[in-house]
From TrEMBL:
All residue ranges annotated as the Response regulatory domain in the record: 2-115
Keywords: Phosphoprotein
InterPro entries: CheY-like_superfamily, LytR-like, LytTR_DNA-bd_dom, Sig_transdc_resp-reg_receiver
Keyword Repeat among UniProt keywords: no
PROSITE patterns referenced in this protein's UniProt entry, alphabetically: HTH_LYTTR (PS50930), RESPONSE_REGULATORY (PS50110)
Organism: Rhabdobacter roseus
The keyword Phosphoprotein belongs to this UniProt entry's keyword annotation: yes
Protein name: Two-component system LytT family response regulator
Length: 250
């Protein structure tokens, strides 16, 4: 897999190049660049399959670079020295990022995900980058879609299609309209932090619901929310008062 590194700090660029070469089998670094213009030219010259892209550079941001590249048919792993404002949007798009100093296990895991979904995934990857750029363009606007990375590839799910989420250890299952289910290898807490609180509510330790999809409430056995897909979800006693307030505010 051909890869390039676009990073404006020399030592960070050389360190990343050395650890990718040493620890990421099958990945060949075919070029590096230290600015947005150099990065655009490098990508168009070598057509990489993977781009390690610094978010903040003196010449602009990694997002500026993505806007300028004509064909975004490559995977991206962002790198950043701090918890950047754009991390939330990056998570929505299911694109990987690495916080500096880079952890080797996290690096290998990110590259492994790219390798798993790369064959035949050019169009979905392109769509994920488009979703990211659209979200960043209107940061005050609530996202309308979320990208879910599954074992089969990327799924782009409108938030209005999500009825509920259910935890199973380190995995979360999304229950969508028309009976569709999607399982992802992230825990429910991550989506509690990611999905808009206006619409989604952690009703129980193992369940999160779309408030707009609650059909009715049953008072038996402490309380259940009946969802539009027919599912009954137990209401945690600690969450009952807040749940009732949320329902009344719909």
């Amino acid at each position: 897999m051909k890869a390039v590194i676009i990073e404006d700090e020399f030592h960070s660029r050389e360190f990343l190049k050395s650890v990718v070469t040493a620890w990421c089998e099958g990945v060949e670094i075919v070029g590096t660049a230290e600015s947005v213009p150099e990065g655009v030219a490098l990508i168009e010259a070598v057509a990489p399959e993977l781009v390690f892209l610094d978010i903040e550079m003196q010449s602009g941001t990694g997002f500026d670079l993505l806007q300028q590249v004509r064909n975004r048919d490559f995977e991206v792993i962002f790198t950043t020295a701090y918890d950047h404002y754009a991390i939330q949007a990056i998570k929505y798009s299911a694109i990987d990022y690495l916080l500096k100093p880079i952890d080797l296990d996290e690096l290998q895991a990110a590259v492994a995900k790219v390798r798993e979904r790369r064959p035949g995934q050019v169009a979905p990857v392109n769509e994920a980058l488009e979703l990211l750029l659209a979200t960043l363009k209107n940061p005050a606007t609530e996202p309308t879609k979320i990208t879910l990375a599954t074992s089969e590839g990327l799924e782009f799910v409108p938030l209005e299609q999500i009825i509920r989420l259910e935890a199973a250890g380190a995995y979360t299952t999304f229950f969508l309209k028309e009976g569709k289910k999607i399982m992802v290898s992230k825990n429910l807490k991550e989506y509690e932090n990611l999905l808009p609180a206006r619409r989604f509510f952690r009703i129980h330790n193992s369940h999160m619901i779309n408030i707009d999809e609650v059909k009715k409430m049953l008072k038996t056995d402490g309380g259940y929310a009946v969802m539009n897909d027919g599912a009954t979800v137990m209401i945690s006693p600690k969450k009952k008062e807040e749940f009732l307030q949320r329902i009344m505010q719909r």
